[in-house]
Write a structure and sequence with these properties.
The complex is a heterotrimer. Chain A is mainly alpha-helical. Chain A is built from 15 helices and no strands. The longest helix of chain A is centred in the C-terminal third of the chain and has 36 residues. The model of chain A has no long low-confidence stretch (mean pLDDT 85). Chain B has a domain of 188 residues: MetI-like fold, CATH 1.10.3720. In chain B, strands 1-2 form a two-stranded antiparallel sheet. Chain B is globular, with a radius of gyration of 24 Å. Chain C has 19 helices and eleven strands. In chain C, strand 6 and strand 7 form a beta hairpin. The longest helix of chain C is centred in the first third of the chain and has 29 residues. The chains are: A mainly alpha, B mainly alpha, C alpha/beta. Chains in contact: A-B, A-C, B-C. The interface between A and B is large, with 109 and 108 residues.
């Protein structure tokens, strides 16, 4: 038990400091806090575990049995739904969508931030203000006019309007801008003295230094693009390019049995979960660090 | 002279580099804003804009039987999200900062719901909230010997519970921001306070909370703006019901545009939502500024 | 960091490769269907000079694998008869809030199904194709039931759709639950409810004896109001919306009869307590799930949806029975009569429309009795038999004698159910009692009624009369705004 508390001696943040831990009431408080945190994590994770469990049920069992656990763990049921929906198709489309969104997120927002943070052409303050204001504009109220414009340009049924939408993101621009402003001026000056042009400085000096922030933006873009549904639904519905989310959103209008819907949800959760498992450190750090400044 | 010339060149380059992104901003953000205003002042068949009709569309939308409910509910969502959704991450941030064991696990655990796509979470919660014996939450309550609850069908609880599902999804990521903020607080502050005899509670209220206050202020307005646009949660969960208890302004806008083919009405509603949010943002800025003075 | 970025890329590209592998495998082994359709496309384009491509919104839903196989068979036949046509499956279930975005995005399938309440609105919005010429050339115009033709036409007599078939709402019963509750006669036939009051009592017996809900009532979306309008008629509120014949309509939702009907619904929840756990979350599809899985004993459904409880939700074919929706004591019985038209994307060329009409012939849903059409009907019926779906008659919307005879013969030949299980239902619809859907802005009326349903089913103290008066006022406002412009 004492081992449990020795670690508290080196506690670096929070209200309870290392020197508090000798008191019994603080020790009890630490244990209670530990238990609360465990309960919170259980609450956070349980719904996701439940989808996995419920996916094994058949329709009658799901609708009538008062149980959390399925009677049998039969993977062939999952496979049947997988095949019936031809899920690989939706995965492929979502992947195309996500990869394109990463590129546009990094490229367009990075370029604009480069101009705002380093080149600072005349009038850049106005541009920055316009960009910041767009954070305050309710993006989804634009959807009617935006959808109309997409149709006028005949871009419906393609990924282009979806990819490019990620190229105009004020939040990513702020992230890039903050980062670029932290790059030592001497490096840029040295580049200029070597006769490097504006684009050369961007590609040869700034981009290689910006990998951490590119990673953060890419991760944000992956999560956002994988989950995005409203514009993809309007633009891709009824084409061969429907993404996983378009399919999930369509279930609200189609008579599909509840278990198939749940299994589709499970399939939709698996890829981000794998990515999260691989990069949890970067993702949680990025989420914290990224938004502090924004 | 030479210097000035190169300065201009740099300007041109700067604008050239900004141009592609600015076009995108124009297409996705600014142009639709003005286009909405234009659409809202005309009548239309499908997307064809016909005659100028002044404020007729606005009048029609305001007179719609669902407008009052949607308007009231949208504010209700916002208020509840300030009560639940806004405070929970602060609490989470503070409490997880107090652990030393399994901290990484807690961080990962609370962030996990954030990576689950929103539509999937809503489908999942839909089955959690099923009334009757087979709903997941009622199964759990049943094991504890509690009678099944009505959940979303109790209209007093519809909106708060929908806010709970939104909080479940997003609180973790916001909590991480608060945690980063909390761990950046200088240990000297705590030490000085301890020497002055401040207990743990006093330190929370006099050091931790004031330190995250400015962050919390920024997140407040962002939260209001995002919750004000709530759309798919009530749409998938209850289709706006029971009896309009969960319909939101954005949902009404979606119905105008995509169910009733009434793009002018939808655009008029969009413009109204925009104006409300601009007023709210303005109020917020005025309030926070006057406090700083 | 460079390493990590690299590993992201590697991971994603690996995933891409994996998926490509999966999908290739799935296509070749699991769904031979998809590849056949594609090969059809390839060969046909090689053979003819002017290929026509059509997308079929009438394709079966993804999980109905057996039905999909049948449709692949139809595509094969199509390929034989019309090698120039490429058919692409594009399952689409019509929904009011998805259709318009698809029109704008030009992604509407060449041919799709909708409901009889929709054509007027779709025609007025220019969202569907005029197919008068194509129908005239085929001689189908005169074979269409005139009142149904009127539904599918604009004011100038141009026709925009062809009917698949009609349906009449009835009461579907889960015979297993009736047996369990002892509600069967000496021959084992379910004791159908004879009146609304009797329905409530029988539902109560079922709930007490089996624990399952007696009745599944819908209150999530417009389908709730749709079902309720039939209940209201059977309480004597036979005119919920009055056509003033001058282009305007008068809402009539607050009549004493309609209020009585709503009071009855309320009592089903709060006095009898015989409904499923959450009617406000039940829609057309979940209702069949409740019935099929034995969570509810009765559900309002139509003859064209018998695959839903059986094939989709697992009810054995001999355990489904249907009777007419009973009337309240002292009132006349009505069955809501509606139907499913096929309509065509406004982007379609005449060639595409003709190809789609050819496809309808092959699946046996057009007024022709060619060998292929009969083979199509038989294939459909055989598929129903194989999947435990009752093969029963439909309500034809065509007057072509040979077609009707052929259809009846196929139903006779493939019959897999005891006709007595459906007698009560078909007798009621034969005698009188067929009531078309209300005129006016029908979906809006359903929406208003659904709101009242949601209120009375979640609020024990709801004031029904006041709610109906409010709904009436709301609906009248919509009617005034829509029809007096």
């Amino acid at each position: 038990m004492n081992g449990f508390f020795t670690k508290y001696k080196n506690k670096k943040d929070g209200v309870i400091r290392g020197y508090d831990i000798s008191s019994t009431s603080v020790k009890i408080a630490c244990i209670i806090i530990m238990l609360i945190c465990l309960a919170i994590v259980l609450f956070s994770v349980f719904p996701i575990i439940w989808v996995f469990l419920a996916s094994f049920k058949d329709i009658k069992e799901f609708n009538r049995n008062v149980t959390i656990l399925p009677d049998v763990y039969d993977f062939s049921r999952l496979k049947a739904t997988w095949n019936a929906f031809s899920f690989p198709k939706f995965y492929r489309n979502s992947l195309i969508m996500v990869l394109g969104c990463i590129l546009t997120s990094v490229f367009f927002n990075g370029l604009l931030a480069y101009a705002l943070a380093i080149l600072k052409p005349k009038g850049h303050n106005v541009v920055f203000l316009l960009v910041m204001w767009s954070l305050l504009i309710p993006s989804s109220t634009n959807i009617i006019a935006l959808f109309r414009n997409i149709n006028i340009l005949n871009l419906n049924g393609t990924f282009f309007p979806l990819w490019l939408a990620y190229g105009a993101n004020a939040f990513y621009i702020v992230l890039f801008k903050e980062f670029f402003e932290g790059i030592p001026k001497e490096l840029l000056e040295a580049g200029k003295l070597d006769g490097a042009g504006v684009m050369k400085i961007f590609t040869a000096i700034i981009l290689p230094l910006s990998k951490p922030i590119i990673m953060v933006v890419a991760i944000f873009a992956v999560t956002a693009a994988w989950s995005d549904f409203l514009l993809p639904y309007l633009v891709l519905k009824g084409t061969n390019y429907e993404t996983v989310m378009v399919k999930l959103f369509s279930f609200k209008d189609t008579p599909t049995d509840a278990v198939s819907v749940l299994r589709a949800c499970l399939f939709a959760i698996i890829p981000p979960t794998i990515i999260f498992a691989l990069f949890q450190r970067q993702i949680t750090d990025g989420a914290a660090a990224g938004a502090v400044k924004g | 002279m030479v210097k000035k010339k190169s300065f201009k060149r740099q300007d041109l380059w700067g604008w050239l580099i900004m141009l592609p992104s600015l076009i995108l901003f124009g297409f996705y953000v600014w142009e639709p804003l003005f286009e909405n205003v234009r659409l809202s002042l005309h009548n239309s068949i499908r997307y064809e804009v016909l005659d100028f009709v002044g404020f007729d569309n606005y009048r029609r939308v305001l007179a719609s039987p669902d407008f009052i409910a949607a308007f009231r509910n949208t504010f209700s969502y916002t208020l509840w999200s300030l009560v639940i959704g806004y405070l929970v991450p602060i609490f989470l941030g503070i409490i997880i900062s107090e652990t030393v064991h399994m901290k990484g696990f807690f961080r990962t655990g609370i962030y996990f719901p954030n990576i689950v796509p929103g539509i999937a979470t809503i489908w999942i919660w839909n089955y959690f909230f099923t009334p009757g014996a087979t709903g997941v939450l009622n199964i759990i309550l049943g094991k504890l010997g509690v009678a099944p609850l009505e959940w979303l069908n109790n209209t007093h609880w519809t909106i708060p519970l929908i806010v709970v599902t939104m909080t479940w999804k997003s609180a973790g990521s916001t909590a991480l921001i608060y945690m980063a903020n909390i761990s950046a607080i200088s240990p000297d502050l705590y030490e000085a306070a301890t020497i002055d005899g401040a207990g743990i509670w006093k330190r929370i209220f006099h050091i931790t909370i004031p330190s995250v206050f400015s962050l919390a202020k920024t997140l407040l307005i962002l939260q209001v703006i995002s919750v004000f646009q709530i759309l798919y949660e009530p749409m998938v969960l209850k289709n706006g019901g029971p009896n309009n208890a969960s319909i939101s302004l954005m949902m009404l806008q979606y119905r105008y545009a995509f169910r009733d083919f009434d793009f002018s009405g939808g655009a008029a509603l969009s413009v109204m939502i925009c104006i409300i949010l601009i007023i709210l943002s303005g109020l917020y800025m005025k309030l926070t500024r006057s406090k700083e003075d | 960091m460079a390493k990590k970025l690299l590993s992201v890329l590697v991971a994603t590209s690996m995933m891409a490769a994996m998926l490509a592998g999966c999908s290739g495998k799935a296509e070749s082994t699991e769904t031979p269907a998809a590849s056949t359709v594609e090969s059809v496309a390839e060969t046909s384009t090689e053979e003819t000079a002017e290929p026509v491509e059509i997308t079929l919104g009438i394709w079966p839903e993804d999980t109905l694998t057996a039905d999909i196989e049948i449709y692949e068979g139809y595509v094969e036949t199509m390929k034989g008869l019309h090698p120039e046509v490429t058919c692409t499956p594009a399952y689409y279930k019509y929904a009011t809030d998805t259709f318009m975005p698809m029109v704008e995005a030009k992604t509407v399938p060449t041919v799709f199904e909708t409901w009889f309440t929709e054509p007027k609105k779709l025609i007025a919005n220019g969202a569907v194709a005029d197919i008068t010429e194509e129908l005239k050339a085929r001689g189908w115009l005169d074979k269409m039931n005139p009142s149904i033709k009127a539904l599918l036409s604009d004011d100038y007599g141009n026709v925009y759709g062809v009917p698949r078939d009609g349906y009449a709402l009835g009461l579907m019963c889960n015979v297993e639950l009736f047996e369990e509750a002892g509600l069967v006669d000496e021959n084992g036939y379910p004791l159908f409810p004879t009146s609304m009051e009797d329905l409530a009592e029988k539902a109560k017996i079922i709930k007490e004896k089996t624990g399952a809900a007696g009745l599944c009532l819908l209150a999530k979306d417009n389908a709730g109001g749709w079902h309720f309008s039939n209940i209201a008629w059977n309480f004597g509120a036979t005119e919920l919306c009055k056509d003033n014949l001058d282009g305007t309509f008068t809402a009539n939702l607050a009549s004493p009869e309609a209020i009585k009907a709503m009071e009855f619904v309320k009592s089903l929840k709060w006095d009898y307590d015989v409904l499923t756990a959450d009617p406000t979350n039940e829609d057309w599809g979940t209702g069949f799930m409740q019935l099929g899985t034995g969570a509810a004993a009765m559900y309002i459904g139509a003859n064209d949806a018998v695959a839903q409880p059986t094939q989709v939700n697992g009810l054995p074919v001999d355990k489904l029975a249907m009777c007419a929706i009973p009337a309240a004591e002292g009132c006349d019985q009505y069955s809501l009569f509606g139907g499913t038209p096929y309509m065509f994307s406004k982007e379609s060329t005449p060639e595409q429309i003709n190809a789609a009409l050819d496809f309808l012939e092959i699946i046996g849903k057009a007024p022709v009795a060619t060998d292929e059409a009969i083979a199509g009907m038989k294939a459909g019926a055989q598929n129903n038999v194989d999947n435990g779906v009752p093969v029963i008659s439909s309500f034809p919307c065509w007057t072509a004698e040979d077609y009707l005879t052929a259809q009846a013969a196929v139903v006779e030949e493939y019959s897999n159910v005891d006709p007595k299980m459906f007698d009560s239902y078909f007798n009621a619809t034969k005698t009188s009692g067929l009531h078309p859907e209300e005129p006016g802005s029908t979906q809006d009326m359903y929406a208003e009624l659904t709101k009242v349903l949601q209120e009375v089913l979640t609020n024990k103290d709801a004031d029904v009369a006041a709610l109906m008066a409010q709904a009436n006022a709301n609906y009248q406002a919509i009617l005034d705004a829509t029809f007096t412009k």
